[in-house]
Design brief:
The chain is of the alpha/beta class. The strands form six sheets. Strands 13-16-17-15-14 form a five-stranded mixed beta sheet, with helices on both faces. Keywords: Transcription, Transcription regulation, Transferase.
Amino acid sequence: MLDRRSTNLLYRLLQAVEPLTLEECSRDLGVSKRTLYYDLRKINDWLRTNRLPPVQRRPNAGIYLTEVTKSKVLQLMSEIPPSHYVYTDEERRAGILIAVFFWSDLTLDRLVDWLGVSRVTITQDFKRLREELLQFGITLTYQKGCGYVLGGDERKIRLKAVQDLRFLRSIPVEHPLKKMVETPFAGKSDLTVHVEAIKNNVLPWVEKELQFRFSDDDLDELALLIALSTFRVNQGHFVAKFDSKHIARLKALPEDRAALHILRYIENAHKRRVPESERFFWTAVLAGTERLSENESQLHEPQFHSEDDRRVYLTAQKIVEQFQRLAAVHFEHVDTIVWRIYESLRALYYRHQFDLFPSSGVKKLHPHLNLKVDLLSVTRRIAPAARRLIGDEWREMYNTLIAINLALAIFESERNRRSLIQYRALIVCPQGKLTAQLLKAEVIKHLPFLDVVATVSTRSLDQYLDSVDLVLTTVPITNRLNKPVILVKPFLSQNRLIRLREKIEQALANTNQEEGIVTDLLRLITQYAEVKEENGLRQELSHFIRHIVIRPPSLFERRNQEPLINEILIPERIRILDRVDSWQEAIQEAAKPLLDEGAITEHYIEAMIETVKKYGPYIVIAPGVALAHARPEDGVRRLSMSLLKLNEPVDFSRTECEERCAHLIFVVAAVDNASHLKALSQLTNLLADDNNIEQLIAAKQKEAIIDLIDRYAV
């Protein structure tokens, strides 16, 4: 029989338009290859039972189902009886929680019937569920005459129920638990009808009040939370009172007015007033839901309604400022980047402040982030600003959202330098703002010929269609569009990127866009030069656009775009001196190898010194370590890095109160905002270990320094 994991793998095979590698399946499903082989055996046994050929394998490509097999499997899966579905432990516990939430007359026998397991297994599941709920401050007890009862923090009960209910509703086959949660809801209608009514009649007013839209996923989650809260209120369960300090802070937020729309709906649903604590619960929930700013050109000077908002914004400013100095990058549109980070941090901040669950979207993203950007090691160095704001227990979540926003800013700043021609693309991603931003960053980084006009929800798709050449979407779009539509995964592996390039090239070749660009280029050329063979030039331009502008870069090109640390910090650029007379001389001596080989000009050294004079000793990034840099336009001729090791430290302090001494002075000469980041990330990882810094300072010969650097050049 198929369980959920093997069913999910089978569904992926059904939806795939090309073979899937085991690496992709392992990463996307969160299981080991060994587990995948076990699941494949289950699928093949099921296929053979139904007289169908097993899963096919193609060397160097992956696993797949033939089209004939796909059509027959789809028919079979719609006819799978509920008893053929084997629940995982996690699904059973989620099902028990939702059953307790909805059914006052719940019995073990009913659960045995729904879940298809023994009473002993159900009893063990109850024990594990109680332990799991206690971590959230929720109790699960049996009371005579009342049945199973959930107790504790009402906020956590509702949020946990929504989390588990969304999990159950995502199971890709019909099953008893899915039917159980869709049964008559609150005595009026089934849950799906109730949720759709909230999405159509309540949340649009909330969005209008707040003047922004929710992502499709957040909209679904909010509608479900409102539906479950209505059910709980109808049973007499209310959120506990907030203390007076929290109430004053919540009243200052714009979300407080929007919360009244939800409150009126809940009150009208059971014809009575509810405590004021319900209003503030919804204010906190809305404040902790991320805003979807689809048109960033409309961003304006921030106007804060509360000191909390101002504090979050100042933290975002500090993060961007520290990152530019630490990562040797220089952003042009700093306000836009600060605003993005502010909006992401703001949602996480209010979730933390008012003891709500963190967004599931942020937690899902973190495992994919190391595959995507070389920024986590750098953002961890600027994390103390966010840690003071939010707390240490959510560290990896705010590291993730900061890294995604900074990656997007870096790739946007570089896109116009790397492509002569750009096609306008729209990204449709209902999975949430951070997922959309990560996908946008990947598209901009690896597909520089695409200009991403916006990342939108499915509800906003029509507003942008006339202004784009193609649509990239993470969900199937049922409506026929007059533009090429390409289905993509939210997280792009290297193989997926290569296949995506091929699909885009094919899609654009079938449009008139290429012909229009060729005509425009030809018109421009003829204004300044005599063209002897117009048809030949037209063909060459067409070839250039199709095969040069949109071609996948070779491995050699990708490697040269992002060199390793030992490729730019080479032995000839490392010096050891006993002492210098001033920090200015330290920068000059550290940069001397780069100046001598022509990688930088004298003006670049002057610019680094002037920057320290202007901003202070910010370049001392760790005890004993300084990182000097200036803007690329100040005199950088090629990407390079150098190191001066001083046996006697030099003081960068401007006052006696400061202690900013350094033995190690690194100079980074970056030609743009992106190509040095891999090397810088490796340097950051090296310097994150205090023992490494001590070894570098104690080194008597360059060879010891080089050996340590080589260990991190991976």
